[in-house]
Amino acid sequence: MPSKTDIRIIFLYEFKRGTNATITAHNINESFWENLVNSTTVQRWFKKFKEGNESLENKDRGRPTPTVNNDELKNVIEADSRQTRFPSFVADWKDKKARSMDTP
To answer: Which class for 45: exposed (0-12), middle (13-18), buried (19 or more C-beta within 10 A)?
Structure first.
């Protein structure tokens, strides 16, 4: 199976040949016997190439800035384990399930 970079090279090649995005996606999928790409993805890359950006790398999006400090959250939970609701949720679910099995 071709790598992402291999596929992007094909995108650039087809763009330079003047092939449209739909035909490019069809040809790639037909050649590799898979649903490897869709025309929307090819259109996005063709738009990038048309704007003069022929880099084959994705734009670095980065991670969103966390709104919660994980260390502080961990300290709060460790200080009072009743803050976590998951164990009580599981207990409630098991209790409801047991009661539903008792009724015909």
So the answer is: buried
